[in-house]
């Protein structure tokens, strides 16, 4: 028998989880439903979420006892959805879509209306603050981000301004307020920012990169210039996280996507101190705001990611979940980490991988997610199946 085989009867891992058939995703989220499942001989009845109940995701991060892992997917609002593709035909520019509060809210809610994830993440981009920092850029279809005048000298870095979100991106604050109002406590509203090293990588390289030659050249030949830029991004991201939280974000994810291009010793110089500075500063003003850290290909840096002080480390799919938990310890929450490519597989295969991940993560402090963003071309019906299986799990 395979790891998991759905049937009309409940199927369990011993003392870990069980899954029972549930109503389709098209049923009203407000209609009460009761699912009974076995948990070490105990019958558990699912309770309808009330307007005053804190979102499942936040309770799980705190280590409270929950019936199942909360679930959301990175890039859950985006190009794989037909509704998003239709919107793109009318608004072909990514920046037009991501810098208009009405469109940001509409796009952010598209997956919420269909799948009811436990996290509703703001539709935006980590580069959105750049214009407000005097760094002209664009995001071009088929090419990705383009930085028009990559800084190369100390004088160039001096021209970079600290970010004032109220002035530069008021649509972000407005969108978060509206999302919080629309979603209520049925899910957690998530904001996000780019980490200083990753933002600096895009800026110095002039866009995306395969080899990261320019930023490493700067780091290893003129480190003072890079440190000055990193500090400006650090100060600005502290301000941006606080702004997002004050506007309605209930958790914020920090993306340090390119930090894993650094060796461990260079990570400790060019990324770790700035991440720690962000966490420490935000916790001074927003001590209860969960901070999530994601870095793709982070297997060699896991212990160092935990040293940043974040509440959640998001694992990419190249790390075995059980090994990741052992390396990080149980005091820190984890997120992830199903391979996004799994969503191109059969429904049975998707189901087995979900349960394998949840089993390895254990009962406490786990947010079910992918190990990276959803890939373009992912069948929407497979995403629906992912959520249906995930939401049917019971510990």
UniProtKB/TrEMBL annotation:
Keyword Lyase: yes
Catalytic activity from the UniProt record: uroporphyrinogen III + 4 H(+) = coproporphyrinogen III + 4 CO2
Pathway where this protein functions: Porphyrin-containing compound metabolism; chlorophyll biosynthesis; Porphyrin-containing compound metabolism; protoporphyrin-IX biosynthesis; coproporphyrinogen-III from 5-aminolevulinate: step 4/4
Uroporphyrinogen decarboxylase (URO-D) domain sequence ranges: 70-79, 190-206
Main location, first listed in the record: plastid
InterPro entries tied to this protein: UROD/MetE-like_sf, Uroporphyrinogen_deCO2ase_HemE, Uroporphyrinogen_deCOase
Keywords tagged on the record: Chlorophyll biosynthesis, Decarboxylase, Lyase, Porphyrin biosynthesis
One of the record's GO molecular function terms: uroporphyrinogen decarboxylase activity
Localization per record: Plastid, Chloroplast
CC annotations in GO: chloroplast
One Pfam entry name: URO-D
Assembly mode: Homodimer.
Family that this chain belongs to: Belongs to the uroporphyrinogen decarboxylase family.
Protein role: Catalyzes the decarboxylation of four acetate groups of uroporphyrinogen-III to yield coproporphyrinogen-III.
Record's protein name: Uroporphyrinogen decarboxylase
Lineage summary: Eukaryota, Viridiplantae, Streptophyta, Embryophyta, Tracheophyta
């Amino acid at each position: 028998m395979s790891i998991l085989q759905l049937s009309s009867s409940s199927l369990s891992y011993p003392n870990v989880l069980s899954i029972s058939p549930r109503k389709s995703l098209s049923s009203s989220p407000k209609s009460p439903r009761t699912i009974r499942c076995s948990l070490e001989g105990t019958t558990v009845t699912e309770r309808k979420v009330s307007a005053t109940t804190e979102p499942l995701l936040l309770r799980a991060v705190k280590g409270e006892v929950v019936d199942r892992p909360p679930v959301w997917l990175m890039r859950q609002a985006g190009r794989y959805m037909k509704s998003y593709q239709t919107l793109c035909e009318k608004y072909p520019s990514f920046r037009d879509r991501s810098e208009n509060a009405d469109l940001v809210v509409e796009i952010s809610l598209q997956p919420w209306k269909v799948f009811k994830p436990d996290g509703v993440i703001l539709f935006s981009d980590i580069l959105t603050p750049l214009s407000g920092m005097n760094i002209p850029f664009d995001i071009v279809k088929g090419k990705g981000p383009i930085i028009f005048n990559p800084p190369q000298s100390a004088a160039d870095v001096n021209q970079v301004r600290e970010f004032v979100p109220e002035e530069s991106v008021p649509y972000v604050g407005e969108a978060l307020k509206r999302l919080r109002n629309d979603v209520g406590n049925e899910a957690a509203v998530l904001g996000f920012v780019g980490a200083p090293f990753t933002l600096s990588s895009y800026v110095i390289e002039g866009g995306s990169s395969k080899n990261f030659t320019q930023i490493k050249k700067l780091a290893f030949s003129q480190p003072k210039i890079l440190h000055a830029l990193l500090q400006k991004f650090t100060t600005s991201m502290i301000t941006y996280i606080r702004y997002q939280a004050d506007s309605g974000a209930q958790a914020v994810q920090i993306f340090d996507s390119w930090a894993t291009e650094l060796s461990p010793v260079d990570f400790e110089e060019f990324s770790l101190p700035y991440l720690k500075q962000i966490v420490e500063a935000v916790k001074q003003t927003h001590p209860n705001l969960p901070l999530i850290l994601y870095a793709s290909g982070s297997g060699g840096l896991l212990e160092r990611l935990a040293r940043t002080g974040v509440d959640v480390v998001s694992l990419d799919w190249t790390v075995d979940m059980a090994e990741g938990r052992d390396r990080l310890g149980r005091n820190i929450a984890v997120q992830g980490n199903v391979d996004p490519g799994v969503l191109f597989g059969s429904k049975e295969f998707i189901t087995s991988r979900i349960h394998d991940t949840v089993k390895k993560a254990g009962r406490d402090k786990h947010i079910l997610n992918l190990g990276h963003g959803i890939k373009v071309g992912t069948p929407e019906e497979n995403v629906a199946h992912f959520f249906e299986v995930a939401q049917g799990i019971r510990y």
